[in-house]
UniProtKB/TrEMBL annotation:
Signal peptide range in chain numbering: none
Keyword list, A-Z: Membrane, Transmembrane, Transmembrane helix
Protein name: SulP family inorganic anion transporter
Main location (coarse class): membrane
Membrane-crossing residue ranges in chain numbering: 18-39, 51-71, 77-107, 119-139, 159-186, 245-269, 289-307, 319-338, 380-409
UniProt superkingdom: Bacteria
Membrane topology: Multi-pass membrane protein
PROSITE patterns found in the cross-reference section: STAS
Subcellular location: Membrane
Any Pfam family hit: Sulfate_transp
Length: 545
């Protein structure tokens, strides 16, 4: 259910809800202004493209997403991917990749994959977000300290160059950066300023200072990118044909995957704060639609923004109207205040991104998980983080997920127990049960449990072997084939296998695999008591029905 319709059914479009949502929208718009420009510049595009993205995505996701209170726009998580695409394929390539990613996200939503995306393990999420935070932090040193342009493609090359050139920092730029950083953090330290967005405070003060003093060595939006245009551009095709689209399939999938993860994480946070319940599939579709439309207006990739969504909720936002108002505030800024943006120092935007990077990294959660979580989870987190920083985000996420799955399968396999069962009278010499043994399978009978099943069968020297399946919740084809092979081996040496206790689903799978048809008559029983009774009767090798 789209957010606009969900809010309509809940009565949140009624006039009595307008005031609170308009106020929340204005506050979020003010908060989003410096962030949108900072994220755009860090992604390798012009600052106005970040504003275009926030405007378009803000409206589209608010109306067609799956959460009533979600605020979308450019985010820090995308910086690593987008800057890499711009470096390799240019801005047009980034916009084409964003549009393709939007189509993929729409397909994810229509295919109802929203629930699947949420299964990505916490160590992987913390690992790649912390890695992105480190990359953003180091990537802003050049603007923060006024250093020369950074060469190199790999993180370690850039880091080494920055460290070697730190003695060449520009004092004025560094002072503005440090002052801006203090202003960003000031509302956290001064209770009376809690209501003032720190990034906006730093932006206003630093811009006014540069407007008055005009430091020639201080890089600003105007000196680097020129004046901001007033208003939104007309929709247009970014450019490029099939020859440009095919190489962008991989980058587009990376945008789509990260966008899905970020938007659903933000929606979950919103649910916990606002007491709402989002529709994950509608959320993916809404995010996809936003990423299809934004590049047509010169924008870049967008997703749900956790910080802006949280600000919306804390400010009283309860309906999509707040997201629409937030976008209108940004439009008004472009129309009325665009000329003033030329004096915004890049060092101030870098200081804002320093704080964003710290918040993204969630250092306290990373440290706690490394110290207290199982060793395998800590290793997966650290490996994902290192691969994100030194290799590639997509590679890091893929390897992290694969390792998590393999670890889970190992744990699941170790939880499967195929153990002997005590039978009454089985130890009596010469008794009818003396050559009878029983095994019970406890846990899922799947491919990782095959070796346990084979070992248990081959450890039993019995004329009659009863296998109880009453504690098997599910079984797969690999394990059932191994079971069929072991039954055939027992029968080949003159023994007998009786299966019992399987529920309707397991019995259906046994039947489809042909195992029941190859058992002897009476060798499939509903429970252990019936199996023991059947074991005392002569049996035939003819197939049971």
């Amino acid at each position: 259910m789209f957010a606009a319709r969900d809010a309509w059914k809940a009565g949140l479009w009624a006039p009595r809800h307008w005031a609170g949502n308009i106020v929340a929208g204005v506050i979020v718009g003010v908060v989003a202004l410096p962030l949108a420009m900072a994220f755009a510049i860090a992604s390798g595009v012009k600052p106005e493209q970040g504003l275009y993205t926030a405007i378009v995505a803000g409206v589209v996701v608010s109306l067609f997403g799956g959460s009533r209170v979600q605020i979308a726009g450019p985010t820090g998580a995308f910086i690593v991917i987008l800057s890499g695409i711009v470096a390799e394929h240019g801005v047009v390539g980034l916009q084409l990749a964003t549009l393709m990613a939007g189509l993929m996200l729409c397909a994810f939503g229509l295919a109802r994959l929203g629930g699947v995306i949420r299964y990505i393990p916490l160590p992987v999420i913390l690992g790649f977000t912390a890695g992105i935070g480190i990359i953003i932090w180091v990537g802003q040193w050049q603007a923060f300290f006024g250093l020369p342009p950074v060469p190199g493609h790999f993180f370690h090359e850039k880091l080494w160059f920055l460290l070697m050139n730190l003695p060449r920092l520009d004092p004025v730029t560094t002072a503005v950066g440090l002052g801006s950083l203090a202003l960003v953090l000031l509302p956290r330290w001064v209770p009376t300023l809690r209501w003032v967005p720190g990034p906006l405070l730093a932006l206003i003060v630093a811009t006014a200072l540069q407007g008055l003093l005009q430091f020639p060595q201080l890089a600003t939006i105007g000196s680097t990118f020129g004046d901001l245009p007033r208003g939104l551009p007309l929709p247009h095709w970014p450019g490029g044909g099939l020859d440009r689209i095919l190489p962008l399939i991989g980058p587009a999938f990376a945008i789509a995957l990260l966008g899905a993860i970020e938007s659903l994480l933000s929606a979950v946070v919103a649910d916990s704060m606002a007491g709402t319940r989002h529709d994950s599939n509608a959320e993916l579709f809404g995010q996809g639609l936003a990423n299809v439309i934004a590049p047509l207006f010169g924008g870049i990739a967008a997703t749900g923004a956790i910080a802006r969504t949280a600000t919306n909720i804390r400010s009283g936002g309860t309906a999509p109207l707040a997201g629409v108002v937030h976008a209108l505030v940004l439009v008004l800024v472009l129309l009325a205040f665009a000329p003033l943006a030329r004096n915004i120092p890049l060092a101030t935007l870098a200081s804002i991104l320093f704080v964003v990077a710290w918040n993204m990294s969630e250092t306290h959660r990373v440290v706690r998980l490394i110290r207290h979580a199982p060793r395998a989870d800590a290793v997966i987190l650290c490996l994902t983080l290192l691969l994100t920083v030194f290799a590639d985000l997509v590679v890091a996420v893929n390897i992290g997920i694969v390792l998590s799955i393999l670890h889970f399968l190992h744990r699941m396999a170790s939880s499967v127990d195929v153990a002997p069962m005590a039978l009454p009278g089985a130890a009596l010499p010469g008794g009818p049960e003396s050559r009878m043994r029983a095994l019970q399978v406890r846990g899922p009978l799947f491919f990782a449990a095959v070796e346990s099943l084979r070992a248990a069968f081959r450890s039993q020297d019995a004329d009659v072997l009863i296998l109880s399946l009453d504690r098997v919740p599910f079984a797969d084809a690999t394990a059932l084939q191994a079971l069929d092979d072991e039954i055939a081996a027992v029968r080949a040496r003159g023994g007998r296998v009786i299966l019992c206790g399987a529920d309707a689903r397991i019995r259906g799978k046994l039947n489809r695999m042909g195992i029941l048809s190859r058992l002897g008559a009476g060798d499939f029983q509903p429970d252990l008591a019936a199996a023991l009774d059947a074991a005392g009767r002569p049996h035939s090798n003819a197939a049971s029905s």
